[in-house]
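ok so for the tutorial part 2 we go from a plain amino acid sequence to predicted structure tokens. step 1 is just haveing the sequence, like this:
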Amino acid sequence: MERLEDHDFVVNTRSHTVLGAVSRSYVFYSNHDFIRDIQDLLSGGQFAFFPKDSLGRFRYVNGFSVNTQLFLRFILRVESGRVTGPGGEGDDVTEIGIQFKNSLVGDAAVSIQYFINRLLCANGLIVPAGKTQSRIFHSGKRKNFMKRLERSFREVERKIGSTATAVKSLMAINFDPESLALTKMTPKVFDIIPGSRSKVMAEHRIPKRHKTRMTRAEQAEYEGSIIDRIPKTFAGKHAARVFNSPYRKNATMFDFINIFTEYAQTQPIHKRLEIEERAGVLADQIVKNKRKFGS
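step 2 — the prediction. this is what the tokens look like for a chain of 295 residues:
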């Protein structure tokens, strides 16, 4: 009781259920208020219903409710690219927008992240937008909270062009499993889908080897051989078609990332969002280390 003296409860009054315990500095922010405020932010005060209308320059894509968390996704710009290879040329169109997330019990800050939707695969990718700009904590006065939300949103919106540049970078980097291993990204690769490393090794009968008995070059070759089997193990209908497209001379890192985002669509919504976000973290790391990969 002493520990709870400085806390308040967030309660569902219909079901008489305690949803969470929060400090007294917490600003209650219902999902209803969240939807209304995001609508005002994007539309400039012009009322619109998400499912059918655009909000200013933004177009609503979809939304998800997971327990007490709500996710809303909007598209702002479209990047049209061309891919070439032995089969000729083809279009590669990617939509880029923003994802907003709220937790009404305050167990996580309101967050703003970049959302990428590749039309060729029809799946999503969540890319970090920078921690300082993209997180708004449930604290302080309501008026100040709204000012912080708007300021963060404008900063993320202003830098959305960097995400378009990142997409182009991923499209320009060849899929190279050994390079992923050499840049020490193997853990991030296999963390995206829990248990994926074991599944790949078992399915392709890759024997376990001890790192201490291998040189750095041998480790990279060994880890690369496991990563190289990921497309054969997890690629879905669309990812496999893109990954092996006759329009490409080589598969790219964007094709590789799309394997995970398509797989995510086969999972329950909470797992899907986790996979999309972890895939986005890997994509972000690849772009930041692009000089270490061959062009």
